[in-house]
Amino acid sequence: MSEGKFKFIEAIASAHREGLIVNENSLILGLGVNYENGADGTTKGLAAEFGERLMDVPVSEAAFTGMAVGMGNSGLNPVVHHGRVEFALLAMDQILTQAAKWNFMFGGDYPCSLGIRLNIGRQWGNGPQHTSSYSSLFLNTPGLNIFWPSRPSEAYYYTKRLHTLKNPTISMEHRYLFGTSDSREVKTTAKKIQTACSYGSGEKVTVLTYGDGLIEALRIRNHIPDLDIKIICLTSFINDRKIDFQLVDEIDRSEQIIVIDTANYNYGLLQGTIGQIAQNIDVSKKLKIFSPPFAPCATAPSLVKDYYPRAPEIVDYLISLKLTKDPMKDYSFDELHLPANYDFSDDNPSKIFESELN
């Protein structure tokens, strides 16, 4: 990439490097993380520079995650990489029962400084066993903070924070975004954690999304610039998970709310968010949900085509509301089934929401 840009995987690798330099007590564990192009390129070249602080491990997720929990309880800042969320399911006792509850069980002054990177599959070939996020499992666990980057600059910001945070934190990374690019400029403060960002200020349509859903939302916004669609993208879920009152106010002013969820909506991340919003305002008459069916994602391209929400179908919905007359060309095979190559450089947030981390 050019000097002023980086790809998603480059952003993570760069953040890891800086995090290891800043904190000498930090290290990275995971299958193949010490390979030259380790962890799908996200630890590329780091073993040559940091040696044993890049630890390859046996294929035993429970064992090496448990080892990292012990490190986090002993003054180190380990960062664990799991190539899929499904692989990490073998270590749920270590993550949810031990790390997340450790500080509470020992009086509030004995944190577990554990960072975890979980990759979510999506593109062609991942199929039903490599495409789940299990967001409710993590979001409903007190003591566990969740980062959910939607673009390379956020991936850089959150990954670097994993090396110094004092409480167990998971960063959820969509592999679908690994080929996207972004400006290297990171517009966040050092002391607070970014929880959401908004794009645009229009009050006709607001799109609520997170993670890889941001690409679809931006494609719609850029396709219909005159409508000035407002996008609210949630990017982290920390502390007690309470939604920012400013976000509720932003949504309340909108005439139409579109939810883009790339995971199962029922009992999921965005349904929980809408539930919190509905405690403050009535959204029932202006809400439209776009999400996969409540079924596993198939492997065959012909079956995956209509699984994930797509910008063209959402534009068709806006046409039905007479908010635009300009249809959007449907996606090609590559656009549907291969990792996105979207460039976020010109899509600057109009507002960033931040919160103190307890």
Description:
With 358 residues, the protein is an alpha/beta fold. The protein has helices spanning 8-22, 46-50, 61-72, 85-88, 92-105, 135-139, 152-162, 213-223, 245-252, 269-278, 301-304, 311-320, 333-337; strands at 5-7, 26-30, 54-55, 77-82, 115-120, 145-147, 169-174, 181-183, 193-199, 205-210, 230-234, 236-237, 256-260, 287-290, 351-355. It is 32% helix and 19% strand. β2, α2 (46-50) and β3 form a beta-alpha-beta unit. α1 (8-22) runs parallel beside α7 (152-162). The two termini are 36 Å apart.
Summarize the structure.
The chain is an alpha/beta fold and 358 residues long. Helix content is 32%, strand content 19%.
List the helices and strands and how they pair.
Layout: E1 5-7, H1 8-22, E2 26-30, H2 46-50, E3 54-55, H3 61-72, E4 77-82, H4 85-88, H5 92-105, E5 115-120, H6 135-139, E6 145-147, H7 152-162, E7 169-174, E8 181-183, E9 193-199, E10 205-210, H8 213-223, E11 230-234, E12 236-237, H9 245-252, E13 256-260, H10 269-278, E14 287-290, H11 301-304, H12 311-320, H13 333-337, E15 351-355
Parallel strand pairs: 2-3, 2-4, 4-5, 5-7, 6-7, 10-11, 10-13, 13-14
Antiparallel strand pairs: 1-8, 6-12, 9-11, 9-15
Helix pairs in contact: 1-7, 3-5, 8-12
